[in-house]
């Protein structure tokens, strides 16, 4: 009997605890200061993702300190994240009537309108916020996002460039700048000249001139290019068409094709397709293929991964070419250091093997691509008045052009693009 009675007492004690514990915790919370309640609300929101409890704690804090602006702003954010749009607007409109000038208020209120497809209201709030805080990186970044989403690329570019002037190491701004740059100018005309000198492999220098026209359309950009080359003391012309259709804000394609009647100087046909992805955490990826036809087809499969970090861009790229016995491999690593906007950077590249994108792609014919090649190079791109883009690059190649026989190549390229 005593054991049974003892068990009943134990269960009664546990039931008592379960009943009294919520009231005890609530009593403890009522004894907390508004700052302590605010800290608990932030913990529930950010660590536990328990927005209803965070809202309850925030309201308790405001009962103690009705004029605590920071908690009001946080409560508005909580309602936004909980998809309680009307409640969020009530909070923000009340703060607006009180003439609140806090930077975080304008960011939070404009974010609500941006996420609910009200770009006009969002832009109005951001302009007011920037009047009070003209160097706010958060307001400038959000304003650029709003206008990029609204297809107002000129204003988006101006805003993101202003942010990058204030903080060139802003990684997210750097990624957005690259995306905006694809749309900011409707037209572009480009001219490039490439000079190549060989110390052993060929007797004659190579000269290549390229003239291109780029047009930005609502679905992406298109480029038509004509290349004239003088190689092996002979001349040739190639015509190329490239397109970059955008599938979504995350994915876009590269689709390219080329034709030349001067086989050997250029491939007779070339095609290529790549799927690009703007990935989370400032990463980007690519997977695709390139095909060259001289007297036979050469199929190359490519993959790359890139990463933006502050004002740096890192990229690793490979081309894999299968044949009957093995898979030939080409690798290249690129680093860019951005000095200002998307068109101003200093770049370095080091790699092995030949790439179908290079002006030396005709060397891929006759199975020369199986031999060893090392390359290292640098480039400098800069803009003047945003519409004049200049580029200078130089690359050194050490190539095994016959078994156990190597030669050097010195490559120099200059380019100019006018956008309008």
UniProtKB/TrEMBL annotation:
<feature type="domain" description="YaiO beta-barrel">
    <location>
        <begin position="186"/>
        <end position="358"/>
    </location>
</feature>
<protein>
    <submittedName>
        <fullName>YaiO family outer membrane protein</fullName>
    </submittedName>
</protein>
<dbReference type="Pfam" id="PF19413">
    <property type="entry name" value="YaiO"/>
</dbReference>
<dbReference type="Pfam" id="PF14559">
    <property type="entry name" value="TPR_19"/>
</dbReference>
<dbReference type="InterPro" id="IPR030887">
    <property type="entry name" value="Beta-barrel_YaiO"/>
</dbReference>
<dbReference type="InterPro" id="IPR011990">
    <property type="entry name" value="TPR-like_helical_dom_sf"/>
</dbReference>
